[in-house]
Automatic annotation (TrEMBL):
The modification 4-aspartylphosphate is found at residue 57. It comes from Glycocaulis alkaliphilus. Residues 7-126 form the Response regulatory domain. GO terms for biological process: phosphorelay signal transduction system. The keyword Phosphoprotein applies. This is Two-component response regulator. SMART domains: REC (SM00448). Keywords: Phosphoprotein. The keyword ATP-binding does not apply.
């Protein structure tokens, strides 16, 4: 699958990492890539561009990627609270993964990442988008993957988590 029409926003304070992710996306056929070194610039881009997917780092300053996710998932503050968000971060601890999930991240990918891993996350976002859930405490993609036949090594033991 080529992602020629996909419009991606990369948010990472590390220019080398943005360049690497841009190169990988280019290999997938995705040439509509916007870059932001911080959350303020990312929000500015989102206000004027039609973006299909955000790929963001967690640790940035003065505002981190998780705070941006929380802001974007707030329907009262965000122009597109349904936008798919991939958290691409060096934080791999289960508590961090749960925190990102609970903030509304669509997909989670740990650095260092492979092109294949990113490709699979984008395929899922495009071909099998998850429904969104709204409760008093949460707005974001359903953490359950409905009708998922995936049995590979990244499958969680408890599919309900």
């Amino acid at each position: 699958m080529a992602f020629t029409k996909l419009r991606v926003l990369l948010v990472d304070d590390n220019a080398a990492m943005r360049g690497l992710v841009r190169a990988v996306l280019g290999a997938f056929g995705c040439d509509n890539v916007f870059e932001a070194a911080d959350v303020k610039r990312a929000l500015g881009i989102l206000s004027v561009e039609q973006i299909d997917v955000i790929i963001t780092d967690w640790k940035m300053s003065p505002v981190d990627g998780l705070a941006m996710v929380r802001h974007l998932r707030n329907p009262e503050k965000s122009s597109n609270p349904f936008i798919p968000i991939v958290m691409l971060t060096a934080y791999a601890e289960p508590s961090r993964v749960r925190e990102a999930r609970d903030a509304g991240v669509t997909e989670f990918l740990v650095k260092p990442f492979s092109a294949e891993q990113l490709y699979k996350r984008l395929q899922v976002i495009v071909n099998r988008p998850r429904p969104f859930v709204r409760t008093k405490m949460f707005f974001g993609p359903d953490r359950r993957r409905l009708n998922n036949e995936y049995e590979g090594p990244e499958r969680r033991e408890d599919a309900a988590l």
